[in-house]
Write a structure and sequence with these properties.
Layout (H helix, E strand, L loop, with lengths): L7 E5 L4 E4 L8 E4 L6 H14 L4 E5 L15 H9 L14 E5 L6 E2 L4 H12 L4 H16 L7 H13 L1 H8 L4 H16 L19 E2 L2 E2 L1 E5 L7 H18 L11 E5 L3 H4 L4 H13 L5 E7 L7 H4 L4 E4 L7 H11 L10 H7 L4 E5 L11 E5 L11 H9 L16 H89 L3
Parallel strand pairs: 3-11, 3-12, 4-9, 4-10, 5-6, 5-9, 10-11
Antiparallel strand pairs: 1-2, 1-14, 7-8, 12-13, 13-14
Length: 512
């Protein structure tokens, strides 16, 4: 706040101003403190500070409170008192709105945010579906088969169809890809159903997010990108996996830029303790890599949580800029957590850091930022500057107006469903079913033909058998009678023929 391109004014006490060095802002940071101690206001103040510096911001809004940054502040008596107490207008403080862009996975409180199943990849989907190691291997195998067969996995119905295809044809894939367990396929399919019930299916599709849409400025101020997370937080695993995907996409997409005078983007990861709960080692290693290397792409990551102990030590050591709000120490475990938090700061001989953490008032914090050389400054006890925007949420109508006036309104609102794995495999399945139907019909025709031939043969055999039986029953006498009968029949026929002939000729020649 009140940036002079060299230092950004963040907090103040009776003896000093606590400032953040912009070129050190991409060395990441940590905001910690118990519920109700002022973390959200600190996040808003930092977001405004970075926006004033021309640095875009991404932050998740858990309760809608952060949306107030889009409207002129001064609506709280406590803010007005602090502004007057420290003569902040003389230092450049003024109530004002900031450029904001709203996002929402569900498309209800902001522009829809989507990605494709392929873009998310099997590692993050394994976490999202809560799969074990074997099931995760089967999922990775399905991705590999889809890739080898040029099958696009865009949304969840594509993945479901792909898994069904792999399961139905697992014998033909075993030699090349390994054993495929029907039980594992079933477990993944059940996980997909659970995701759909949680509404996460809306996250997959096209058009997918162009990550550079987060890195925008308006009239020299960085756009503050706010993700509506109140509904998303009902499924913490979906929330944390979504933010991890965003970080990974930033890491994979942005070019190397080295150390800049200020970050290209600052990314706030709120409720960070949810991220590391039960995180598998392979994914934790990936997160460590992103945190370590993404700063060279101009991105600063700021984790927000209750206690520094929520963050793995390998990542905590990379978070150079710290803001610690109050912690309560009523139990031995609480006291241990306070000591851990105190040990993450460079000590100040003017006060005991551990005692100070338990004595901080709302809005007050222990602050330590990196200096120009990248070394942590001595911790200071100070009051965080109040926001210049409104504290608390804006109205639904105000939010809707801001969404519709956005430059990207209409870009992500309409869902696109192009031909992908679902359509291709469905057509293939239809052709196979048609082939099976024709083959079954031909088989039935051949069967009926054979049955007819067999019946005709049986009938012929029956006739011959009956004839032989009659002959056997008649014996020698029967043969004589049969011959006599035939002779009599010939004589009768001859006599009848003669009689008819005489009658005809007698009539012709006038003889009676």
């Amino acid at each position: 706040m009140f940036d002079n391109s060299q230092r950004a004014f963040i907090a103040i006490n009776n003896s000093a101003e606590v400032c953040l060095v912009p070129r050190m802002a991409n060395r990441h940071g940590l905001i910690t403190g118990a519920t109700g101690t002022g973390k959200t206001v600190t996040l808003q103040t930092l977001s405004e500070t970075f926006s004033d510096m021309g640095v875009p911001v991404f932050a998740a809004d858990m309760k809608g409170d952060l949306s107030g940054v889009a409207k002129t502040g001064g609506n709280k008596e406590s803010v007005a008192k602090r502004v007057e107490q420290y003569n902040l207008p003389e230092k450049g403080f003024e109530y004002k709105p900031f450029p904001v862009r709203f996002w929402d996975v569900f498309g209800e409180q902001g522009h829809p945010v989507r990605t494709t199943v392929t873009s998310m990849g099997p590692l993050l989907l394994e976490r999202l579906l809560d799969l074990n190691e074997t099931q995760g291997a089967i999922l990775s195998m399905a991705f590999r088969i889809a890739d080898d067969n040029d099958l696009l996995l865009i949304d969840l119905k594509d993945l479901r169809k792909m898994l069904q295809y792999v399961g139905d044809n697992r014998t033909q894939f075993t030699t090349r890809y390994g054993n495929i367990s029907p039980a594992s396929i079933g477990a993944i399919q059940r996980g997909l159903i659970r995701l759909e019930n949680e509404g996460a299916d809306k996250f997959f599709g096209e058009p997918d997010l162009e990550i550079t849409d987060f890195i925008q400025t308006e009239q020299g101020k960085g756009v503050i990108n706010i993700l509506a997370a109140d509904k998303l937080m009902r499924s913490p695993r979906v929330y944390t996996t979504f933010l991890l995907w965003l970080l990974n996409d930033l890491y994979e997409t942005l070019p190397e830029v080295g150390d800049l005078e200020k970050p290209k983007l600052v990314f706030f990861f709120d409720e960070a303790h949810l991220l590391f709960n039960d995180m598998p080692a392979s994914l934790l290693e990936k997160v460590e890599q992103i945190v370590r290397l993404i700063r060279s792409k101009g991105v600063g990551i700021y984790f927000c949580t209750q206690n520094p102990a929520d963050i793995p030590q390998t990542i905590l050591g990379q978070l150079g800029n710290r803001v610690q709000h109050a912690l309560r120490a009523y139990t031995p475990n609480d006291q241990k957590a306070v000591r851990v938090a105190a040990n993450t700061f460079r000590a100040n001989p003017a006060f005991d850091t551990g005692d100070a953490i338990t004595q901080l008032n709302t809005g007050e914090a222990l602050v330590s930022f990196l200096d120009e050389k990248g070394a942590p400054q001595m911790v200071e006890r100070a009051n965080i500057l109040p926001p210049q925007g409104q504290i608390g949420p804006i109205t639904v109508g105000e939010r809707d107006q801001l969404i519709r006036s956005s430059l990207i309104y209409g870009v992500y609102e309409k869902l696109i469903d192009r031909e992908s794995a679902f359509e291709i495999l469905s057509k293939k399945q239809e052709l196979l079913e048609e082939e099976r139907r024709l083959a079954a019909e031909e088989k039935e025709r051949v069967r009926q033909q054979k049955e007819a031939q067999k019946a005709a043969l049986e009938e012929e055999r029956a006739k011959r058998t009956a004839a032989r039986q009659r002959k056997a029953d008649q014996g020698y006498l029967g043969d004589i009678l049969n011959q006599v009968g035939k002779s009599v029949q010939r004589q009768v026929s001859n006599e009848l023929g003669k009689t008819i002939t005489r009658s005809i000729f007698g009539t012709l020649f006038g003889k009676k």
